[in-house]
Design goal:
This protein is an all-alpha fold. Helix content is 85%, strand content 0%. It is rod-shaped.
C-alpha cells in the first residue's frame, strides 16, 4: 500500500534570511581562515626557506673552514714528512760514511801492529824502546780510540734513524687520515639540494654520527704532537749529523797527524841507524887497515929477531972459540970486551924485539876481536835498517789516511 506523500515544510522569510546570513558568515569565516592559513604557510615557507638557506650557508661556511683546517694540517704534515724523509736519507748517508770510516781504520791499525811486531825482531842493543816505538804505540792507541768512538757514534746514528722512522710512521699515518678527511670534506662542501642523497653518493664506510669522542682541540693537539715530535727528532738528527761531520773530520785529522808523526820518527830513526852503520863501517875500514899494518909490523919484528939471531950466534961462537985459548993467551983484551958487549947488546935487542913481537901479537888479536865485534854490530844495524827502512816503510807506504 503506497505511503502518503507529505508536502515539504514551509519556512518563514525570516528563517530564510537567517539561513542565508548564517551561510554567508560561515563561508566568510572559512575564507578568512583559508587566507590566514595561506598567509601563514607562505610565511612559514619563506621562513623555512630562509632558515634552510642560512643553515646550509652556515654549514657550508663551517665545512669550508674545516676543509681549510684539514688542508692546512695536511700541508703541515706533508712538509714535515718531506723534511723527515730528507733527514733520514741524509742520516743514512752519514751512517754509510761512518761505516766506511770504521772499515778504513783496520788497514792503518794492522800496519801499525805489523810494524810493532817486526820491530820486535831487532836484536841486541838495537832492541830499544825508541821514539819510533813510542809513536807507533801512540798511533795504535789513537786508532783504537777512533774506532771505539766511531762505533759508539754509529750506534747513536742507528738509534736516531729508528726514532726518525718512528716519527715518520706517525706522520704518514696521520697524513693518510688527513687525505681521507680532506676528500670527505671536499665531497660534503660540494653537496647541494640538487645532489643525490648521502646514502647514494657518500663515500663507503662513512656514517652520520653526531656523537664523536674527539674534540676539535684534541684533533689539533693530535697532529700538533706528531709534528712536534717529528720536529724534535729532526732537530736532534740535524745536531747529530753536524756533530758526526765534525767528528769525522777531527778523527781523520788525528789519525793523519799521528801517522805523519810516526812516519817522521821512523825516517829520523832510519837516518840515525844509517849514520851509525856508516860510522861503524868507517871504523871497520880503518881497523882493517890497522890490522894489515899490524900484521906487517909483526912480520917486520919477526924478520928483525931473525936478523939479530945470526950476529948473536956469531958473537957467541967467537966467545966460545976464544975461551979455548991456552994459558996466558986467555987474555981479557979489547976484542974480548967488545964480543961480550956485543952479545949483551944483541941479547937485549932480541929480548926487546920479542917483547914487542908479543905485544904486537896481542894487539893483532885485540884488533881482530874488534873487527868481529864491529862486523857483528854492522850486521845488527843492517838488520834494524832492513826492518825499519824496508819492511816498516813498505807497510806504512800502503797506508793513506783519507778524509772520512
Amino acid at each position: 500500500m503506497s505511503r502518503v506523500l507529505k508536502a515539504p515544510p514551509k519556512f518563514l522569510p525570516s528563517e530564510w534570511k537567517h539561513a542565508n546570513h548564517t551561510r554567508f558568515r560561515s563561508a566568510e569565516a572559512e575564507r578568512a581562515r583559508s587566507v590566514r592559513l595561506t598567509a601563514e604557510c607562505k610565511r612559514l615557507i619563506e621562513e623555512s626557506e630562509k632558515s634552510v638557506r642560512c643553515m646550509q650557508q652556515d654549514a657550508n661556511n663551517r665545512l669550508e673552514k674545516r676543509l681549510k683546517d684539514v688542508t692546512f694540517w695536511r700541508q703541515e704534515l706533508e712538509q714535515k714528512l718531506h723534511e723527515m724523509v730528507q733527514e733520514i736519507e741524509q742520516l743514512l748517508v752519514i751512517k754509510d760514511r761512518v761505516e766506511r770510516a770504521l772499515g778504513s781504520c783496520s788497514g792503518p791499525l794492522q800496519a801499525t801492529l805489523d810494524c810493532l811486531d817486526e820491530r820486535q825482531k831487532r836484536v841486541e842493543i838495537d832492541l830499544v824502546h825508541d821514539e819510533v816505538e813510542k809513536e807507533l804505540q801512540k798511533e795504535k792507541d789513537v786508532i783504537d780510540g777512533v774506532t771505539a768512538l766511531l762505533q759508539r757514534t754509529l750506534e747513536q746514528i742507528v738509534e736516531q734513524i729508528r726514532l726518525n722512522r718512528s716519527a715518520k710512521y706517525y706522520l704518514e699515518k696521520d697524513l693518510r687520515d688527513k687525505f681521507q678527511a680532506e676528500r670527505i670534506e671536499e665531497f660534503c662542501s660540494l653537496l647541494s639540494s640538487t645532489t643525490a642523497s648521502v646514502e647514494e653518493k657518500a663515500p663507503a664506510g662513512q656514517c652520520a654520527d653526531g656523537g664523536l669522542a674527539v674534540t676539535p682541540r684534541e684533533w689539533e693537539t693530535f697532529s700538533d704532537v706528531n709534528i712536534s715530535k717529528a720536529e724534535k727528532e729532526r732537530s736532534n738528527s740535524t745536531s747529530l749529523r753536524a756533530l758526526v761531520e765534525n767528528l769525522l773530520v777531527q778523527t781523520a785529522a788525528d789519525m793523519r797527524r799521528q801517522h805523519e808523526a810516526a812516519g817522521s820518527a821512523l825516517t829520523l830513526r832510519i837516518h840515525e841507524i844509517r849514520s851509525a852503520k856508516a860510522g861503524l863501517e868507517d871504523q871497520l875500514s880503518k881497523l882493517l887497515v890497522e890490522i894489515a899494518s899490524q900484521e906487517q909490523n909483526l912480520d917486520a919484528l919477526k924478520v928483525a929477531v931473525a936478523d939479530k939471531e945470526g950476529p948473536l950466534k956469531v958473537a957467541q961462537t967467537r966467545l966460545h972459540a976464544r975461551s979455548q985459548r991456552p994459558r996466558i993467551e986467555l987474555c981479557n983484551d979489547h976484542a974480548q970486551a967488545r964480543l961480550l958487549s956485543e952479545v949483551q947488546q944483541l941479547t937485549s935487542h932480541i929480548s926487546r924485539l920479542k917483547e914487542s913481537l908479543a905485544e904486537s901479537e896481542m894487539e893483532l888479536r885485540a884488533l881482530t876481536r874488534n873487527q868481529l865485534l864491529l862486523e857483528e854490530e854492522i850486521q845488527v844495524k843492517s838488520n834494524s835498517l832492513y826492518i825499519d827502512e824496508v819492511i816498516c816503510t813498505q807497510l806504512r807506504q800502503a797506508v793513506t789516511i783519507h778524509d772520512f
